[in-house]
Specification:
Number of strands: 9
Radius of gyration: 20 Å
Oligomer: single chain
Number of helices: 11
Order of helices and strands: EHEHEHEEHEEHEHHEHHHH
Structural class: alpha/beta
Helix content: 40-55%
């Protein structure tokens, strides 16, 4: 398979990378069988490690370009900065994390599918670090635009997208919420245009740090469940303080609204605005959303195994919180989601 749709760009978002993992990722990019690309490394904060590692493993490779001004943006806006730096005539863009490892044929496998879709994802092998234990693989599914907006299946580091998706994607929708994610936004927009696709081929290792493993709540004892609930409550208050500037009840209701219903409402309204198509299926998530159609949508998603029961309850709680505060989402140019 030799077809590639022209010269592309790899947008890599970096923040204080682990030198060994970052060097391994850079080597994996240089090993790609598709070679016509520029790698734009957008550095969140200090760029010393990025420049040092590049000097050690890719000093002679002028395809790598570093964007860095010392400002801390957070992963969401850092990816946006990288996307803004992509040339207007770029045929395709691949999103990249700093600590994964691509297989040599990743781009060769995924790029041809952009002839029929705006955004394409592969699968990944899950590998822990530093012990290098394989724990499984991803099982990403393309559930269509409505279910993708409800519960995103697309992980940015697994995706490639058409170059003509960049212009309508910028600027990214702004909302002060931990739910803001570049891959969710890009998948929602792509789904409303030429569509999305998941190729069931493992194209990279997705590196997981051992201390990020979560237990199975269904196996928890009553005492452990109570402890988990109290921890969740403390975390919710901390997130509210961070994103709303207060941990009072109105602020907590705003945060709950934004993290589920509000964020998806903003995505839906922005998709309609950028595509100029008010009939796109995702418009159902907009400001005219109604409770019982939402319940039916969630019931269908739960019955098909697309979401967990906890997600259904939290989403409905978010809808109710929005009703209490008169929730309506709008792009806020001053909002700066942070990782």
């Amino acid at each position: 398979m030799a077809h590639t749709p022209g010269r592309g760009a790899i947008v890599l978002a970096a923040y204080d990378p682990h030198p060994e993992l970052f060097a391994r990722q850079i080597r994996s990019l240089r090993s790609q069988t598709v070679t016509e690309w520029e790698c734009i490394i957008s550095v969140d904060g200090d760029d010393a490690t990025v420049r040092r590692v590049l000097g050690e493993v890719a000093a002679d490779d002028d395809r790598f370009r570093v964007l860095a001004d010392g400002e801390r943006l957070g992963f969401y806006l850092n990816f946006e900065r990288g996307m803004r730096a992509v040339s207007a005539d770029t045929a395709w863009v691949a999103l990249c994390d700093q600590d994964d490892s691509w297989y040599p044929e990743k781009l060769e496998v995924l790029l041809p599918h952009l002839e029929d879709a705006d955004l394409v994802s592969g699968q990944a092998r899950l590998v822990t670090y530093p012990d290098e234990v394989v724990t499984g693989r991803t099982e990403r599914r393309d559930l269509g635009p409505i279910m993708t907006l409800l519960n995103n299946q697309f992980t940015g580091s697994l995706c490639v997208l058409r170059g003509d998706l960049i212009a309508p994607s910028l600027p990214f929708p702004r909302m002060s919420t931990r739910a803001a994610a570049h891959d969710h936004w890009l998948a929602a927009l792509a789904g409303a245009r030429r569509g999305t696709r998941v190729v069931d081929v493992v194209v990279q290792d997705y590196v997981q740090h051992a201390n990020n493993v979560f237990g199975d709540p269904s196996r928890m004892s009553a005492a452990t469940r109570f402890s988990a609930l109290t921890t969740a409550w403390r975390n919710a208050r901390a997130f509210t303080e961070r994103y709303e500037g207060s941990s009072g009840l109105p602020a907590m209701l705003r945060m709950l609204f934004r993290v589920y219903v509000g964020w998806r409402q903003l995505l839906a309204e922005t998709v309609v605005e950028r595509t100029g198509d008010p009939t796109t299926p995702v418009s159902a998530f907009g400001v005219d959303r109604r409770f019982w159609p939402t319940v039916r949508l969630l019931r269908r998603a739960r019955r098909r195994g697309y979401v967990r029961a906890r997600f259904v309850l939290e989403y409905l709680a978010s809808w109710i919180a929005g009703a209490f505060i008169g929730g309506r989402s709008a792009t806020d140019p001053t909002a700066k989601p942070t990782s």
